[in-house]
Amino acid sequence: MNHPATGIDTTRFVELNDGAHPVRIEYQWLNAERTDAPIALFLHEGLGSIALWKGWPQMLCDRLDCRGLVYSRPGYGRSTPRRREERWPVEFLHRQAHDVLPALLDALGIGAEERSRMWLIGHSDGGTIALLYASAFPEALAGLAIMAPHVFVETMTVEGIEKARSTYETTSFRDKLAAYHDDVDSAFYGWNDAWLNPEFMHWNITEEIATIVRPLLAIQGYDDEYASMLQLDAVETAVPHTRLVKLTQCRHSPHRDAADAVNDAIAAFMASHRT
Q1: 74, 49 in Cβ contact below 8 A?
Q2: GO terms for CC (predicted)?
Q3: Which residues is 144 bridged to in the sheet?
């Protein structure tokens, strides 16, 4: 059922087999009644969830005249938490792009025709997942708009994630983040331990994403505390048809720090590529 004022569908759950263990995925439709409209699928950041997006996906979908699909990845939000003994491997983002996301689309009955009209909207880790999906399934989407993606590991990224761990363990940040996750330690340490794994320093997907053929918009702020503009430049080198938007007075979350500029850029980009 849709909320009468906003068109936001109530949160639902779907069961997937995530490797050896079944998981429950929390998802939500926006503007669900628009079955004729293309889908904008939102991929959240490393500590994100449906709830942490807040109202931005609905705002953007209304601007784009799209249906929206928002979900919390395993380990986040109200989806199945990460098992306490589980340590996500270096390839954890590949697993989300190559296995979990396609399985979710299958479970929701989103077929090839709908996928070919689907736009991916990804932030941070979600932007990386969008890139990996688009490179692995080059025809199974219409295009993608990503914000603050990671395609290789910079020293400043590791330093920012180490600082986040200290903040989580010594301040009220954990309590604030707990409002968005059923198991906040699952979300935080799954992400934090993976990025601080020494093996992750060698992670680099710049060659892999060169197979992307669909329209690609990449957005980042100059004041991003987790990465430099070398990330966007590397994306453009790998995928020369990329459209870059570099924002001043903007940190790691462009959709929060510069929402109007981001919405304008995504709307103009999609309009220029939609048939």
Answers
A1: no
A2: membrane
A3: 120, 216
Q: Which two tokens stand for residue 151?
A: 């395609």
Distances (CA, A) of 63 to 40, 135, 218, 243, 269: 11, 27, 19, 20, 12
pTM here? Answer: 0.95
- Across the range 130-149, mean pLDDT stands at 98
Q: Determine the average pLDDT of the residues in 122-145.
A: 98
From residue 115, alpha-carbon distances to 11, 40, 97, 105, 120 in Å are 22, 10, 14, 8, 10
- Mean pLDDT along residues 5-21: 73
In the chain, % helix, strand, coil (3-state, to 5) comes to 45, 20, 35
Beta-carbon contacts of 115 under 8 Å, excluding residues fewer than 6 positions away, are 105, 137, 140, 141
The domains of the chain are located at: 12-273
Whether the predicted pLDDT of 84 surpasses 70:
yes
What H or E segment, with its residue span, contains residue 43? strand 39-43
Q: Are strands 21-30 and 67-72 parallel, antiparallel or unpaired?
A: antiparallel
Q: For residue 19, name the pLDDT band (cuts at 50, 70, 90).
A: low
State the Cα–Cα distance between residues 236 and 232, nearest whole angstrom: 6
Report the alpha-carbon distance of residue 142 to residue 101 in Å, rounded: 16
